[in-house]
Here is the input.
Amino acid sequence: MFNKILIANRGEIACRIIKTAKKHHIKTVAIYSDADSQAQHVCLADEAYHVGDSIPKESYLNINKIISIAKKSGAAAIHPGYGFLSENPDFAEACINAGLVFIGPSVSAIKIMGSKSEAKAIMEKNDVPLLPGYHGAEQSDQKLLTEAKKIGFPVLIKASAGGGGKGMRLVTKEVEFIELLQAARREAMAAFGDDQVLIEKYLEQPRHIEVQVFGDQQGRIVHLFERDCSIQRRHQKVIEEAPSTFLSEDQRKSITSIAVKAAQAIKYVGAGTVEFIVDQQGHFYFMEMNTRLQVEHPVTEMITGQDLVWWQFCVAYGHSLPMTQNQLSIQGHAIEVRLYAEDPKRNFLPTSGLVKHLLFPESNDYIRVDSGIIEGDRISIYYDPMLAKLIVWGENRDQALHRLNHALNRCQCLGIATNIDFLKKIINLKDFVQDNISTNLIEVNKNLLLLEDNLPSNIILCLASLAWMLYYQKSKSYKNKSTLWSKFNYWRLNLPAQTYLQWYVAEREYRVNLDYHTHEIKCDIDNQILFLKQWSYDKRQIRVEINGHQYCYSFVVLDDEITLYYHEHTYHLIYKDLLKIVTDDTMHTGQLTAPVPGKVVHLMVKVGDQVKKGDPLIAIEAMKMEHTIRASVGGKISQVFFAKGDMVEEGKTLIGLDPEE
Here is the structure.
């Protein structure tokens, strides 16, 4: 087996690979950019080398520098992880030419499957079912529009060179086609260095089901069953599970045998995933093959008991597959959710910044957390916003879902916006619970999932007030801790201690009046009286009796904000006395600001241009996704503050717009 490997990646997947390597006494070499000098994968590896600037093309996409580091460190092989160079045939070839083992498939397999167009042509020759579409070499706007009209709208524009939702656009009307085509091309070029696209018929209520395949150098190929990856947003997977409860046993045998056939057609070696789109009748159509380990591989590991990274090591070293097809079986059900640094309330814009508080459930036989961050880490604007993956296992889907609910309720992340609460809502949707799902589930239920339902009840206001006071009573920053009211010192001679707290939540103000007696606190909110008794406080956990009912909850205080975690809900309250209100008048002035920090990749207007409401003005790339800022009102462009290629900070004014009279 390899003595030392270099991991040409970062974050969660680098940490995941290091874990298996350590288990088998394989030394690891990490690489890091400027932004990642203190990252967890750097700390966990046996050695770490600086590879370049924070921008990916200067670091994690720098083939020559990575090869040089591998040779300098004495690594025998390179594991590419997923993303970055994992499906780049030039990188695989460079490894081989340098005398290094590329832990992945052959260069030819990567080239064939890396081009969705070529892949579909080969699948067609091997009788693998395909959706109606166009995957030809002619790429003019007019040719692609003509082919889209032949297929019939709606259609999907997809980057030919990669996946992960990058360079993909859904087009429902002919009039939208050219604009969305250009956006898809720009995003594809930024993500994969190739702007070629293909067109596919769009199915209205499909499932996305994929099959994990594995091949060795001796020509053996097996499958490790399927995963249902139908829960997606913007064509990016959010929740995955295995096996698919939608498929009958006959359908499972059919789809897995077709996947193995697809891998055999290109003499595949290593880990690969054959992806299918499946209609409501169970008919499946080949979409693409990913020639790498997938983000969602843990659910397969959980139901088979196998370590797929170890399988990769074995196959790359020249060993036979660790198991035969007959030795593999499905054991139970597993579900994975992806935790992202993104803000659902702001159209899922990626967020960056300092992780001020982080808590995950402890791992055990049925709970697993794959993460590349710890509390105190800073989330960068330069890379994918995924923070962690939470994976749970159960004897069946119902048990797995029950355990997922409990585990997700124990996930806490503060300092940056995340999708944790959004995930909680998804897994409690009736359609999700009943497995009545499709790739459109999130879009169909968007209004319900984004409904702001975390306004505090009077009970929550009482719980927050108690937690706030207990926290400051125990805080070392306050010398006088002899009384619960040391921070809120409103004594009245011969009368109970009284105080009030003012909270600010979602632009609303709440006042809580409190009277402290010997063994209880009287809480008055809008003339509703609540009595708090028998409270206990230990390590951010509070138990209290309110009007005869027991409540148990946890909380975190950061500066002037308290966050309460109660059952599946999260509540954020700001202590009013410390509130700093900043008025945003950009809508009145017509100035358009950057919703995220990032790089200007396209400027559609210049000073003097007349625009209408909704017109695209400027596009910013952040965390590998392109975000188009559109005119909020009609008017004339008065100023343009940035040029293509400039880096911008969140909140910076991008364009001045004089609104129409």
